[in-house]
Specification:
This protein has 336 residues and is mainly α. 79% of the residues lie in helices and 0% in strands. It is built from 16 helices and no strands.
């Protein structure tokens, strides 16, 4: 148990160091954008018909603390993020980023997590069955589904579903809430309305995630199922589910668990384009807005950092979980 606690503490320290490094990279990228935050904001104000002078720019820079050294500004930013959970103000919108994101980041991460969960709930049993059952029709059918999931872009799938729904039901299925619930406080009715809309982005994001996970599970299981230790277990009289779950499936779970953080990142990367097509007002759409339209690097940096923090936290949890369920990792970490 002591070794396990030492392992968990080491992984937690590595996670914190990773987040500090990521915060430094994100802040540096925000600083490298041409023109500082004050100049971009006042240039945007100028496009709105307001006349901006050099004195206005200098006053805005002083108000934002942009006249301080770079390291001091980064330390202040990362300190506010780590200890207060405050990402400051949006560069262009001049609204507190925490207030601007609000529930949007949690809705976005929730959609990605659920899409990933659904993908693996389908891929694990189906991939195990397809790797262990000698059925050409089953294997060819699953291979076709996998290829479609990998080859059909998510945005094209979203457009096809929207077109079908519009032609058949007269509803485009866009947005995360109905009009009357868009700005309403959370209630049971709003939750039901959200669920009636959230299934579509979950299905679209889970489509390719399921295909990718299915290919991974099937490949890992096929590799493990043909190894000598499985043949030896079968010779000792171990068959059926006991053979699958005690040996090849258990060993194949290690790489799958380790890849969860990567899979979450891949699913979130697909979210912005899906959000644009389905007109979803969530973090993916805000990220695209901050990076490509308004050049609001403070907003984009906050979203990227929160996504990275979620991935690092997930990787930490999967490392701990893997050390518990995988006997090889447990032996190397805890000595038995």
């Amino acid at each position: 148990m002591l070794r396990f606690i030492q392992f968990a503490c080491t992984r937690a320290a590595m996670a914190v160091v990773t987040l500090l490094l990521v915060s430094f990279i994100v802040f540096t990228l925000m600083e490298l954008v041409p023109a500082n935050c004050a100049e971009r904001y006042l240039a945007w104000k100028n496009t709105q018909g307001e006349q901006i002078s050099v004195e206005d720019i200098r006053a805005e820079e002083q108000r934002l603390g942009l006249d301080k050294p770079y390291i001091q500004r980064w330390a202040s930013w990362v300190g506010n993020v780590f200890f207060r959970g405050d990402f400051g103000d949006s560069c262009i919108l001049r609204v507190n980023i925490n207030q601007l994101l609000g529930e949007k980041i949690w809705i976005s991460l929730g959609i990605c997590f659920v899409a990933l969960l659904v993908a693996y709930l389908i891929a694990l049993p189906v991939g195990i069955i397809s790797a262990t059952v000698s059925s050409p029709s089953l294997n060819n059918g699953l291979r076709l589904v996998s290829y479609l999931g990998l080859a059909l872009p998510n945005f094209l799938l979203a457009l096809m579903i929207m077109l079908f729904s519009t032609m058949v039901f007269g509803d485009t299925l866009t947005g995360m809430f109905s009009k009357e619930f868009r700005d309403a406080p959370w209630s049971w009715e709003r939750v039901l309305d959200f669920l009636s809309h959230a299934w579509l982005p979950i299905f679209i994001l889970g489509w390719s995630a399921t295909a990718f996970a299915l290919q991974t599970v099937r490949a890992l299981m096929s590799d493990e199922y043909g190894k000598l230790y499985v043949t030896a277990a079968r010779a000792r009289g171990v068959h059926g589910r006991a053979l699958l779950w005690r040996y090849p499936a258990r060993h194949a779970l290690g790489p799958i668990i380790n890849s969860l953080g990567f899979d979450l990142n891949r699913v979130f990367n697909e979210l912005p384009i899906v959000a644009v097509i389905l007109t979803l007002s969530e973090a993916g759409a805000l990220l695209l807005e901050g990076l490509a339209r308004s050049n609001d690097q403070q907003l984009a940096g906050a979203i990227i950092f929160m996504l990275t923090a979620s991935i690092v936290s997930l990787n930490f949890l999967t490392d701990v979980l893997l050390s518990i369920i995988d006997p090889r990792v447990r032996k190397s970490v805890m000595g038995g």
